[in-house]
Design goal:
By secondary structure, this protein is of the alpha/beta class. 32% of the residues lie in helices and 23% in strands. Helix 3 crosses helix 7, helix 4 crosses helix 5 and helix 9 (226-238) crosses helix 10 (259-269). It binds zinc ion. Zinc ion binds at residues 289, 291, 293, 295, 348, 350, 352.
């Protein structure tokens, strides 16, 4: 029996204690002296001029490239191949002389991207499927995590909330067992004053209980998957529910915020939605200020564009980023698969430094509707739990049938199909039927973008059209 099965058998009270215990571990990892130091320096430098920002980036980049050349086998080889020495770096544009890497590079040569300065089993490990549905392993050192959280809290403080205030979150963790059919559909992390709502029990019948819990006591903000927060908001709006307590702000995370979601969420909760764009790979962060403009956090990573369009007003292209925080697995000129449109000339009234994005796009996930009527978003989270897939896409072809399109990787074996089906059944319940279809390549959409999830069922709710 694994840890998760054991957790599922505990009474709710003990599950809350287990969640709080895990919360305490995360807190110890994130809020270290490096966190406080970084946060202070971000506050002091919030309004730096663009020249000073570039000087900072250049200094940090030199340090990073030297570290890469000395301790990261992949970069040692690729710098040598193109005749580049870190001492050659004169300006930020010199970065373009170095080759780009993408998710496929990380998938195939990930172990060579880890610095010899670190011991792998002491690093924090993440899995991400990104835009292509290809699971990859990312490792980060502890300082990088603490610094990342300083950026996150610098952003949240901008919107008037402080760490320690009570909040509600909608994340993808399986904290409420799938088979549970009666409330509570949430668990409590007492360490952090956090109530964690399940994102897989959001059926029409259950939404009543979610609202009941929201009305139980005051809280400052909501964070988590916008696809889930939207379902609650939509329920509140459809039923003209007057909440007893309202948040000050809502922080969506991990998904692209669709415009319809923002509108519905702001209406239901009567507060602004402040968006943050980032990735597990920790190569860039773009946040909305109180004027709702998207500021690139230039000290977090260097954002370059692979230009696909340019006008008088903006540049547009795929974001190619170099993260400045993670020294354990540095990603240089990393293709994110996400697109941005950046203003050429724009001064935000907030006065904060950093270029401003007009728009960020990518990673639009659809929902799957289970035969029980539950709407489950972020199929990429499920896909990344399955082994040995090169690409994977989920197509709902009827109310109770899901086709899983799979491109196998070299290590895929007979038993992997069963494992894949187990993962899906675990998340989506036994009422759903699955068909696995093997392909050499999964067809891309009209604009060349990959869709992790396609819903071919009419009237299935809120699925995105083929954008
Ligand atoms: Zn601003």
């Amino acid at each position: 029996m694994n840890q998760h099965d054991l957790y599922d058998l505990l009474p709710v009270f003990f599950q809350n204690l287990a969640v709080s215990h895990y919360g305490r571990r995360l807190k110890a990892r994130r809020y270290t002296p490096v966190y406080f130091e970084t946060l202070r320096s971000l506050e002091l430098s919030a309004a730096l001029g663009s020249e000073e920002v570039r000087d900072y980036q250049l200094r940090e980049l030199r340090k990073l490239l030297q570290h890469c050349y000395r301790t990261v086998p992949y970069y040692r080889e690729s710098f040598d191949n193109c005749g580049f020495e870190p001492g050659d770096l004169k300006c930020l544009e010199d970065l373009r002389r170095l080759p780009r890497i993408d998710k496929e590079t990380v998938r195939l040569r990930g172990s060579e991207l880890i610095s010899s300065h670190y011991t792998r089993n002491r690093l924090i490990h993440y899995k991400t499927s990104g835009t292509t549905g290809t699971p990859i392993d990312i490792y980060a050192d502890r300082e990088a995590i603490a610094r990342k959280y300083a950026f996150i809290w610098h952003f949240r403080n901008m919107h008037g909330v402080q760490r320690g205030e009570p909040y509600l979150s909608f994340s993808g963790r399986l904290l409420v067992p799938l088979r549970q059919s009666a409330p509570p559909f949430w668990r409590e992390n007492y360490t952090d004053n956090q109530t964690l709502f399940s994102t897989i029990h959001l059926s029409e019948n259950n939404l009543f209980y979610y609202v009941e819990r929201i009305n139980k006591k005051p809280y400052s903000y909501i964070s988590g998957y916008p696809s889930a927060i939207f379902l609650v908001a939509d329920y509140i709006n459809r039923n003209s529910i007057e909440l007893k307590y309202y948040p000050r702000v809502i922080f969506p995370s991990s998904e692209t915020l669709l415009p319809g979601w923002r509108e519905a969420i702001e209406k239901a909760f009567r507060c602004p939605v402040a968006d943050l764009y980032g990735q597990v790979e920790t190569v860039s962060q773009i946040v909305q200020c109180e004027n709702m403009n998207y500021h690139i956090q230039e000290k977090f990573g260097i954002v370059d564009l692979d230009l696909s369009d340019e006008t008088e007003e903006y540049w547009e292209g795929e974001m190619v980023c170099t993260g400045l925080l993670n020294y354990a697995m540095p990603l240089i000129n990393y293709r994110t698969g996400d697109f941005a449109r950046l203003y050429k000339h724009f001064e935000c009234p907030c006065g904060r430094s950093g270029r401003v994005a007009m728009e960020i796009s990518g990673r639009k996930d659809d929902f799957i509707i289970t035969p029980e009527g539950n709407k489950v978003g972020r199929m990429s989270v499920i896909i990344k739990k399955a082994p040995h897939l090169k690409e994977c896409q989920v197509v709902q072809i009827s109310a109770d049938t899901l086709r899983i399109n799979v491109v196998k990787d070299d290590y895929y074996c007979g038993a992997d199909e069963q494992r894949l089906l187990d993962v899906f059944r675990n998340f989506l319940g036994s009422g759903m039927k699955f068909e696995v279809q093997y392909m050499d390549r999964i067809p891309r959409g009209k604009n060349g973008k990959f869709k992790v999830c396609i819903c071919e069922v009419k009237d299935a709710g809120f699925s995105e059209s083929s954008s």
